[in-house]
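Fold this: Site-specific recombinase XerD
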Amino acid sequence: MQHKGDETVLTLIEEFLIARTTRKPSPHTLAAYRRDLLAIARLVAEDPDASLPLATLPIGALTARALRAAFARFAAPRAAASIYRAWSTWNSFFAFLVADGVVAGNPMPAVDKPTVPLPSPKPLRGEETPEQLLQAVARDDRRQRHPWPERDLAVLALALCAGLRLSELLSLRVGSLAGRPGERRVEVAGKGGKPRVIPIEPELDAVVNGYLESRRRRFGARSVRRDSVLLVDRFGEPLRRGGLQYLVESCYRRAGITDRVPRGAQLHALRHTFATRLAEDGASASEIMRLLGHATLTTSQNYIDVTAGQQRAAVRANRTNRALGRLYPAEPG
């Protein structure tokens, strides 16, 4: 009979990943878990003190000392965010093993991890940019090969007015929009399958209904049943990740605002614009947290902090303040 401490790391990694699938992570997230777990396990196996084939590496070989050495080698060519992500994955892995009775304790607290600052929000730049984007996309542009302004406008409006992530948009069904007039809402399956409900105003409701009516004309009444995927391509098939990303990028180009989209943000810039405007209009961190489905209040507070910094920068740039500064120079410190 195999002793628990002799079970192979690779076997336990697969058990952990199978257990994680119940949380409905994206394929990208699962691939990142596997990559980080295998990278560290491989470094432990290659260490001269262990010198074992990765396929037979026992869980008992993953001591705090071995993990510290492996993480030190792992960290050398990588950014702090990558190291922190790997540390968090291994911490979750050992928490799973402890709960399953495979190991007695979690050695990860003995392994140093970098402090990674929260990423700054990346909303669209320019006060009127969101409105310009919506107006441009709402027009029927005959230069497009397959124009569908009602669908494109619905995508942008759901991201800008409900703050939905890309994965959340793709998972929406026609029946995800529910409620009586005046109490309409969109029901979202967020990260890890965690549900949340976002109130929607009549304007957004009208945009989505306009899209569904255009879809009914294109593909028939059966295409808009409650259990149908909400967002579809020009053939009536469910939009996929790459197709949705391309759609949003093409909307930016059509509106002529590509220079106002933060690098690397794309669709997420719309969600960040939603959150930033909530903060600018006085929403609390807890309200932003609930509406955006953040895991922690700290992430939501980041939007308020950034907004406060932007307001102070605007005041500092005021020409009257600069003139006053020439008359009465501020004392250093």
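The radius of gyration is 25 Å. Residues 27-46 form the longest helix (20 residues).
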